Amino acid sequence: MNTEIISKKLMIATMTCFVLGSSIVSGGSTVLIQDSWVSVITGALLAIPMVLVYARIVKLYPKKDIYEVFLELFGKIGGRIFIVMFTWYAWHLGALVLRDFSEYIQSTVKQDTPQVIVMLSIIVVAVYLVRSGMRTIGRWSIIVLVVILLVVITTIILGVNNGRIENLYPLFNHKPLEFLSDAFLMFSFPYAETVLFLTVSNSLKKDESPYRVFIYGIAFGATILLFVSLRNIVLLGQEMVRSSLFPSFVAIRIIGLGKFLTKIEGIVMINFILLGIAKITITLLAATKGVASLFNIRNYKDFTIPIAILMVVLGMIVYDNIINLVDFLIIYPIYAIPFQIVIPLVVWIFAEIKFRKTKIKKKGVNAVLIKNSKVYYKVVSDLKI
Amino acid sequence: MVLVIVIISYIFIIGFDYIPLIKSQNKKETIIYSTLLALSFVTLVLVVIGVKLPSPTKLIEYLLKSIIKT
Amino acid sequence: MFGFNKKKNKVEIDSRISGLNRSLSDYKLSNKIEENIKMMKEIFKDNDNLKIRKVINSSNPKFFCYIAFFNGMVDSKIINDSIIKPFTISNLTDKDNNITKISNQVIYINELKESEDLGKMVEGIASGDTLMFLDNEKKVLILNTKGFEHRAISEPESEKILVGPREGFTESLIVNTVMIQRKIRTNQLKIKYMGIGRTTNTHVAVCYIESVVNRDVLNELLTRLEGIDIDAILDNNYIAELIGGKGYSPFKRMRSTERPDAVVGKLLEGRVAVLIDGSPVVVTVPHLFIENFQSPEDYYVNADYASISRIIRIIGYFITICTPSLYIAIEAFHHEMIPTPLFINIAMERQSAPLPAGLEMFVMLFVFELLKETGIRMPGNIGDALSIVGALVIGQAAVEAELVAASMIIVIGITGIAGLLTPKLDSSVLLYRFLILFFTILIGFLGFIIGLSILVINILNQESFGVLQVERIDSIKPQDIKDKFIRRGWKNMINRPGYLTNNEIRKKENG
Prior knowledge:
The complex is a heterotrimer.
Chain A: H1 8-20, H2 36-60, H3 66-108, H4 115-132, H5 134-159, H6 176-188, H7 210-236, H8 238-243, H9 247-254, H10 265-294, H11 304-318, H12 322-370, H13 372-384
Chain B: H1 2-24, H2 27-49, H3 56-69
Chain C: H1 7-26, H2 33-43, E1 50-56, E2 64-70, H3 76-89, H4 99-106, E3 112-115, H5 118-127, E4 130-134, E5 140-143, H6 173-183, E6 189-196, E7 202-209, H7 215-226, H8 236-243, E8 255-257, H9 260-268, E9 272-276, E10 282-285, H10 303-333, H11 340-350, H12 357-377, H13 380-400, H14 406-419, H15 426-443, H16 445-461, E11 463-464, E12 467-468, H17 478-481
Antiparallel strand pairs in C: 1-2, 2-4, 3-5, 4-5, 6-7, 7-9, 8-10, 9-10, 11-12
């Protein structure tokens, strides 16, 4: 049984976990405060056309990951340049998420441990998952999803008492430009990050539809994120949502069950960590595959450990403190444009052109075969002349 | 303390991953793996000790800001 | 890890073994009976158990034969009554001195073979058959006279149940296969014999039910068995390691049991059983993870009670792995997760304990493992006294001397008791207890989750003969759950579990 080929369901589960990855900590963007939940939906809508492009690329090149597509479309040197860029994106993103998480843990839960240790421990699980192959990642994602759903539903039920619907009002109290810019923020973080799934597209079974995979993945992720965002707003109210770094965590502090379980924020930590591991695993997978394709090596699993450590190193140096983290979030959408939009579009256009050419060629060959007799006469008549 | 953990884990990594790789005699893979391993070890130790390495974030911010200005 | 020196030993063994084979192929049977007997004596030189006797026909003294057998391996009554007596008494003339006449009309034996193959002869006589040599005849008769001593059928020590059959396998392969055949009285039951092991040539039997067996697994098993290249197979564990598949895993890849009813149940689900001569333990493949929590007793008691027992076992497994780490995580890192009065009590107690919590837990777990190991190996008489000493005196004294905290002893107690629910998973429990504890000490609750994830991923990865040990996660059907986590009554279990077999046949009808 091949450990790489997985079914549509597992892929969708993995993608959902990835989308939720770091966004579940904040419930999406909090710029619009009480209207934050709107960007969850608008961001997803904005992402759908882009995601369809990704799916189309997968459809045009089934059984190949995007690194192989790079090499095929742009030749050895051009393709390698693209591989380097994409690998850098994956590697950088993984380091950012890693750093995000260890900052979160340091500031809320555990102050003493050096961040290196936290990051190294998280990366251990990611390494294990990558080395176990895509199939294990898929199955693990399903288990994680079940846990996530349980926790989210539980917190929503427990929070019914403490929440106030008025926190959602005034509805739509922002300018349309703000809505648009926030939608774009959500688009790049997290929806269009699914571009990394192009690197694992060779894991999808041949006759499964990549369109379904991407759309369902985004849709499920958006739905769960919507509930989380609504829950946070309803529980916290405007001020807290705007000012807290990790709104989900703060929201859980408010709810409780009678006198006994007053402080259960540890439970949501399970959520965050599992999803964070999922996201980091995919980025690690993408980066490792990239390095392996760069040097034309089939078996990428061997390189996992050094690349994982390098990701930790990058995570350590990428910010000086948590303020930098917030600052970077503002320019992240623009920084991500080349990777999320430009490169896929370029690949798509080139791929479509090539596809049309081969289709014409095929048609041409068939036409020749049909018209064989006529060609023969033409050649003979030409020779005579 | 952290350094000790790092060094012990590297010994494990070398025994677990590296030696079978040498035995299997894929020259290309061994070379690449060795460079990556050495690079990661050096940088990790530097970070743990506390040496400040240059951060790409600043570079990215600088590039983007100059592009936006033009 | 550093396995550079493995090549030498293989060469040495090869030369020794080929020496053995060479010597056997040096010998050849001839027409002259005296030469054959001399050859037998030479082959089995220095083995004083070999007995050779000349049997002469009373009516025609020129008509004789030699029989050879191993003392103690044969049933003397059969030899006396069915071989020596008829041969001595019957009226034979010189014309009758051919092997067909002798085998068909003179001696009375239910299983009889003619052979010129020395290997088969040696194998036969070493299993308890008798060899009969005739004059002017190259072929030798191999007569079934097996009658060696073996243990009576008794209840297996390690798999005691409250209610149900108390038969257990013995060390004799024939007896074991018979126990299985008695429960499955159909022609669909197949039993294939193989001989494995260069020196021991141990008999191994592979059993399966043809209509339901999973063919891929069967093929894989047979291939692996045929590929075994070792001196001796003494026990099922040898086989388990040799054909289990590559890589180390704390989880077993085959299920071993000493109960015939368990084996028969597994055969009916489409699994294959491997029986080994000399070992009362029978191995079934493939092995699913959930089988670690199942026991044959589940089928002899009330369905609901059995379901609850199974669920308790599964919970117990996770309790025994997670409890030490949870205790450390909550007490040392996350005080706010438990109600405050409870925490104050625990904290007051811990005031007096000298070691940091994590270290103390490590030491206590280690001591617990020591106690458990001692308990297994101790001879019976010392057992009681030592347990009193160990549990009460030392435990009590340690708490009163304030070396350890009382709450920690409670935690260790819970861990230990829960661990006894699933003895088959001991190796994984031991490993993961310490692994998760290590991560928890390092980073608190996060470490606990990381360790738990590693455990879950390891379980997900397990494979047994090409079949994943954890079933379809993406498409769980009610059909699968019926007999895995809970046990529904027999009225509800109409179809066989579809995961293992390709042919779903109704269980209640005659398959």
